[in-house]
User: What shape does this take?
Amino acid sequence: MINLTFHSPEEEIHYPPITDYGIQLFIKRDDLIHPFISGNKWRKLKHHLFKAENESKTHLVTFGGAFSNHILATAAAGAKFGFKTTAFVRGEEVQNPTLTFCKIFGMQLIFVDRTAYRHKQALYQSHFRENQEAYFIDEGGFGPEAELGCREIIQELQQSYNHIFCAAGTGATGAGIINEIHQQKLKTQFHLVPVLKGGNFLKDDIKPLLISDFPFHLHEDYHFGGYAKTTPQLIDFIKDFSSKTGVLVDPIYTGKVLFAIKDLASKNTFAKGSKILMIHTGGIFGTLGMLDKF
Assistant: This one.
């Protein structure tokens, strides 16, 4: 039986390039939830695991790229809670530390070309149509189960904030946060930072997951070239922040949202005395695919 509750602390961070503008910076350290099932990966998987258990499913099947934190989290969660796991991996067959960890946790990897990968339900059906024990989890855990789990980020907060920031890939985490801010009638302003180029599409993607049309800020100018893209400016910022705070952030998600906070602070976006919370969504292992940038 799955019976495990994780809570992450809210840590105040003193980082002059941000806090010298008269604001307080806090980070909700979801990266500390678990070494491998960290950040929003746990939150997005949690209710899938409950649902799979309730439906007597024993085989989790999911999707991701070669450095996907989600498939690594699924592999670790499967091993921890007694599920068999399989992942369809986008692209040609490769070996890297992330996939090696997945194999150590017992996950089967099926590499598929990028064209076939776009049709995830068809892939799933072609391999698992007759398997009554298989349970489908979309890329990144996206869907109502993920949104529900991510509401807990707000439910756990020990204090109030003027602004809450979160990086966005699929938008499920943002949807959960928005819904709980709305449910609790908080005055907090929510800021979503897409890590993909042209992130305006997230408005349409997350709309079906929202319980109400609730206003939020979408900052589309901090993608640094697109998903898993970066620049020397971002890398230098990450190195400076991590070396001065002891908090490791990655160049795919958390580094971009922190840079957005720094840039917006420098433009006097926030009132003096504002309390800002950044959600650390984990994803540190994604850095393994970009070590040459450092």
